[in-house]
Write a structure and sequence with these properties.
The longest helix has 23 residues. The radius of gyration is 24 Å and the shape is elongated. It is mainly β. A ten-stranded antiparallel β-barrel has the order 1-7-8-9-10-12-13-18-19-20. The protein has one domain. About 10% of the residues lie in helices and about 50% in strands. The two termini are about 15 Å apart.
Length: about 350
């Protein structure tokens, strides 16, 4: 096995991980969390959902490049690079329709994180007639393609079955980290057909589950244009440990088939996909509060400090439904190169390099 190829492939994997987590740094300036915790979380969910769903869709890619399981004891090592694609319809949302309280005002269409790189409508957070915070809805990143790297091993088991395992150890990235694991099973249906050894095609059932875990640093500081009256904390250091824990889960259940020719294999599958993204905040967050004396005004003080646990946990709306994909694999000795396209609500492009030992 060419060690130089493996080294370069792992470098690519790390670069993709860096890009993926760096993408979440779009949330470092999170002015919308200056509102009440419930409102801030609702806005964050609406803003981040397209990337979360695209990431989950990408996690469901790359599981297979043939319907033929390894013989008992055979194995492969495969590196995949998938890209979940955000549909155009998910690049914007209407803030007036996401259930914000009456304390938050602002009308017009806002960009999601995948939308255009331009400021959205002016939003205001008020209490007792006093404006506590005012900000423009955040810009989008103007980026619809979310890279998802995976590394996996397939191992042939008895009874026409193959075990697939994915794993990326925890990688420190800037002030955060990312890790991944997954497990899948491929089971041959062709083996039950008469004369199956002579058939040029294979049909199998597949099920796979992947989970990605990441810690993403955030940054929300007191608005310097508003009075600060902290007495028990130093605002220069009290808000340095803000973090968002992200867990993305993806399930892929499919029937797959492949046409096996000497050098090239054509494969495809149809099945069901489901993703889920959970997020929760930790650290201290400065929120403005209403102060009645000596005259009604906004102020940052100790009573406005919220812990991450004061914000509701976020559960991104599930993306689920049918998926269908088609692709090809080229095998040269033990080296395999494959690419496929998945059609679903969030489409996916996948390419990969592997080393297969039947």
């Amino acid at each position: 096995m060419n060690k130089q190829i493996i080294k370069r492939t792992w470098v690519l994997m790390i670069i993709l991980c860096l890009f993926s987590l760096a993408s979440f740094s779009q949330f470092k300036d999170i002015d919308f969390l200056r509102t009440a915790p419930v409102d801030g979380v609702k806005y964050l969910e609406a803003y981040i959902t397209p990337w979360a769903n695209a990431f989950g869709a990408g996690l469901n890619g790359g599981w297979y490049n043939t319907a033929k399981p390894h013989k008992f004891g055979g194995f492969d090592i495969t590196i995949n690079a998938s890209a979940g694609i955000v549909p155009t319809s998910a690049q914007t949302f209407d803030a007036s329709k996401i259930g914000l309280s009456a304390s938050v005002t602002g009308a017009g269409v806002s960009s999601t994180v995948a939308g255009l790189d331009k400021a959205g409508p002016l939003m205001s957070y008020k209490s007792n007639g006093v404006t506590l915070a005012s900000f423009n809805a955040p810009k989008g990143a103007n980026w619809r393609y979310i890279p998802v790297p995976t590394a996996q091993v397939g191992i042939g088991l008895p009874l026409g079955t193959e075990l697939k395992v994915r794993f990326i150890p925890k990688i420190k990235i800037k002030d955060g980290d990312v890790s991944l694991w997954g497990v899948g099973l491929l089971h041959s249906l062709t083996q039950y057909l008469p004369g199956d050894k002579a058939l040029p095609f294979d049909v199998s059932l597949f099920a796979g589950y992947t989970k990605l875990m990441a810690d993403v640093p955030l940054a929300l500081d007191p608005d310097q244009s508003v009075v600060q009256a902290y007495t028990t904390v130093n605002p220069a250091t009290a808000f340095n440990s803000q973090n968002m824990k992200v867990n993305v889960e993806a399930l892929n259940v499919s029937a797959i088939a492949s046409l096996n020719l000497p050098v090239i294999t054509f494969y495809g599958g149809i099945g069901y996909t489901k993703t889920r993204t959970g997020m929760e905040l930790s650290g201290n967050f400065p929120l403005p509060v209403f102060v009645a004396t000596p005259v009604p005004h906004a102020e940052y003080n100790d009573s406005g400090i919220k812990k991450g646990s004061d914000f509701p946990k976020m559960d991104i709306k599930n993306f689920s439904g049918m998926r269908a994909n088609i692709g090809f694999r080229i095998k040269l000795a033990i080296v395999t190169i494959h690419a496929d396209y998945t059609r679903a609500q969030y489409n996916v492009l996948t390419t990969g390099l592997g080393f297969s030992f039947r």
